[in-house]
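Dear support,

I submitted the protein below through the web form. The confirmation email said the job was done, but the results page showed an empty box. After a refresh the structure appeared. I'm attaching both so you can tell me whether what I see now is the final result or a partial one.
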Amino acid sequence: MDVETQVLGRYNISNSQGYEIKVCYMQNIKEGYSSWQIQNPFYLYLPVLAMQLSLMIFLSRILMVILKPLGQPRFVSEVIAGILIGPTYFGKKQLSSFIFPFESNILLETFANLGLNYYMFLVGLEMDLSAVRNMSKKSLSIGTATILFPLFAGAGLYFLPMRTKGPASSTQPLGAVFWAITLSITSFPDLARILSQLKLLHTDLGRTALTTSIISDIVACVLLVVAIITFNDRTFLAASIPTLIFIAICWYLLRPGIAWMIRQTEKKGEKFNNTHIYYVLSGVAVFGLVTDACGSHSMIGGLMLGLIIPKGELAITIMETIEEFVKGIMLPAFIITNGLRTNLHDLPLVADMAVVSLITVAATSLKILTSVIIYLLFGMSPRDGLALGALMNTKGVLALIVLNEGRSLMAMDNTTMSVMTFTILFMTAMVAPLVLLANKTTRRARQYKQRTILRTNPNTELRILTCIHSMGNLSGIINLLEVSNSTRRSPISVFVVHLVELLGRASTMLIVNEPGNNSATNPPSRERAESDQIFSAFGSYKDKHDTVVVQPLTIVSPYTTMHEDIFQFSEDKHVSMILIPFHKQAASGGRFQVDNHPIREVNQNLLLNSPCSVGILVDRGLRLFKSSESSTPTQTELRVAMLFMGGFDDYEALTYAYRIAGTPGVTLTVVRFLPTKVVEQNANNYGEVGSFETETEEELDDDYINEFRFKSMFDKSIIYQVKHVDNGEELLENIRRNYNEFDLYIVGRGLEMKSPLAIGLSELIDNPELGPIGDALVSSAFTSHASVLVVQQPASDSFKSRSQRRVGKFRHKKWASPVLNPDYEVLENAKTMR
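What the results page shows now:
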């Protein structure tokens, strides 16, 4: 029979004043035939650990729901939950001794340290060091300044007299090192998620912030390792040399070996399964054990393994498999540990809150002032400097790791740690409001700068953003760009965006794909393989034209917010037109039926809120035809019809059609459809003039058409015709009889079209994104062989005053005779030379 006895166990801890004290507690010991005399701690404390984690997760989820409307990241909610669980609030209740007995701290801290190891492994998986190698001089200067200045200035804040009780000597000078490292850190994972939520991930500001945060995290890890090695019992050389040797072995031997094994697996066509993940996760524990044995922190091993695993399908599979478990189950144990060491309830009793407030404000301002000054020196907007400085204040788990390591090494006491935890919480909570404030001001300055093809100078570069969702959209988009008349005076810059749905990833990603970036350290995944095929096709298009620039990139985002990422990128790159394919099912009976693919919602959102023009291409085999009559066998022929009904969308469509007409081998027929006098008279008799075009709108239409005729009067490849019809049915019948042999139809979407010709068409529309005329062309059997391009100006343009729209592309308010125009002789000579 087993006999239980009780013996004393001992812990050595330090109190809030830094003095070391001993705490005793009872342990149950079994005497019997068991090989384990002390009971398995998992039998005693595992239910307690489960209860602690459940409480932490429950509180943090509630706070996340409450703080999400305020734009607060997950880190803020978790830290607040940890503080509430600790002595600040929950520790004052009697129930705390039951949920958080002192004896359970061993298991809690062990589980927390294991979670930190795997968390830093995930951080290493997310980091892309190639961004650091390719960073510009500006980014390097900003990154260096926002790290070094807070590092030295933050150390000085540590020595401010914040305590009102206890001896002044309780401030350990070594604590300034950990304090400075904490203030210089910018958490890369948390910053990436904030940028994703604010839709700034792919902007110049976002890329600069992410690159700087990578440098900050790496520098912080190096300084932390140096601090741990220096302040440990072992000598510096005895601990640093083994650590450096291990890092060198990992980077120069293990990294190429892992990349080679991944390539071999992909060449065999094998997919990464759970077995591969098991090996990698076991490697995280082994790497942590080795670095801990070397005298540094075990999390350095996890970070190193994450950095040497190539970014690709294996990394994505690991992230999707363990990310939620590590961040949702294991990491909260560390947040609980930090909360148990933080006591904000008693802080006013031992510290001067005025000095604490000064420290918090000063620490928050360090990176903001540095960024603003650097931006002013580079001649950039101080608002962007404010936004960058606020983003650089994003703290995360790594900052708490540094604080807790400083406390474990007795470089800081509980008071210092409580002040710093509060400062970290305040700095991170202020990121979203400050960035939104700066970004809102910038948006106000940019909202009147919509870019369209109509407003783009014809002698400057035309920037087009193409959105590709699948391989089936390639040929039509590329063939349309082929005939978009890229010249040396007006080259075309194409931003090829491969749209990928976000599945299981932590945040929206924008990947700029460099040509030939398929090295051993970056093996292609399934999504990357499809992107490579898309970008290879556009690369072939670029090779045919020396006046074309192609920049490929991939946007990985949820369908519900994908249009916002496209908007932000188009604004950042000053795009004039977004070109998107029309997603459809196979034609049936001459009509296209749209499927319910989520990408359709993306296209509709683009049309509703786009800052630039949008073109929707319904591709039915658009291609260049060989001309049988031409003596030059390489000459092509494409028959294009532009159907002009009036309105601002038609102005944009006519401008793009005129550009296409400049391509050799392209013939353009512009047909203007006007209502008959009888229709207009009937409308006036019934008092319905307001529902049709006003006199001012008719004048605007005449101005644009007359300017177009003046510019194209010597161009034999352009034909202009006028047709009078009574209604929409007669319009379609006229197209069926006289204009049914074209390869491409270009029309405006016609959101503002008030012509009686639209009567009867708007009532039967199946595809609202195409407008009444575009939908009618797509749905008609006599145009089932032809492609259709529907063009829309920015939706916000419709709210502008009429006086702002009077001046057209050619800067004439009223039509004048061509021979009286000063450009007439120049144009005539130019056409003669051609």
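Response: this is the final, complete result; the empty box was a page-load delay. The chain has a mean pLDDT of 77.
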